[in-house]
Structure prediction request, 331 residues.
Amino acid sequence: MQSTKQPCHSAGRASIFALCLLLPGSIVGQNAGGKPSQAANLPQDSQPATGLNLRVDTTLVLIPVAVTDSLNRFVLGLQKEDFHLIEDKVEQNVAHFSGEDVPLSVGLVFDESGSMDYKLRTSQAAVSQFLKTMNADDEAFLVEFNDSASLSVGFTSGTAEIETALKKAKPGGLTAMLDAIHLALREMKKARNSRKAIVIISDGGDNHSQYTAAEIESLVREADVQIYAMGVFEPSLPIGLSTEEVSGPKLLSEIATQTGGRAFAAALMSDLPSVAARIAVELRNQYVLGYYPKNQTRDGKYRHVEVKVQQPPGVSTVKAHWRLGYYAPTQ
Prediction:
């Protein structure tokens, strides 16, 4: 296994945006193992003699951010002061800042429907390329789908089992991509790492799911998971393609954008492995910004998040990617 923290543009200052994790309850931070540190309520007989009860009840929001320059190279070396966090038009104070490569929990969602047909072998090669970037502390699972979605391989730190399962894949049937994403989101709840991502390999043409696009988009807005897509699209004009295949690229992009991820389209089938490597590198080259929202109202409403980066000197215009928001806790 090898590290992928390399294809980037390093300036003295730089930027990166991507995912937003909501850590609810009485959470005030994270320990070294990536698990929330929860403030415990003191028992009644241990309360201070003043009669005043102390309660820590706040929410820490974490936002992974990916930043690239005009040539799509990652910009590294930025400091906390280079970022501005805004929630519902109110600027927030960045309390936590990190640019470290941390272990990943990844869900691979692989399309084996009839529309993939001749694209299947190259798609398998793309997944193999992605798996080569996995580190010892990473973990991954595999969901395969056509008429229905199934969990082929649960979370594992090895890649051989996933590779073996993919070699048995045969194209056929309809496409239940949205059901597969729902299954992957459910499986991701078992992740041991705090940074989570789902990578979809598909042409995006759903025509057999029980869940609707609106339902899945709502779920991904609530989840603390970043979604990326390797789009296996037809390079030609949409003549002879189904309605689902034509709308596939837009659907994948809408789902990914909600989470701060991205949908990458392969102009040629041979481009897929490099797209897989690109996604792996982006997941490794992210800043994580943490803040305690000034609005502590627990109303369950959606909060819009915006991240701005100060343009570093000597670097072409930078562009940031981050999660668009999160739902406030209700308790």
Helices lie at 120-131, 160-167, 177-188, 213-222, 243-259, 272-284. The first strand starts at residue 8 and ends at 10. The longest helix spans residues 243-259. The mean pLDDT is 82.
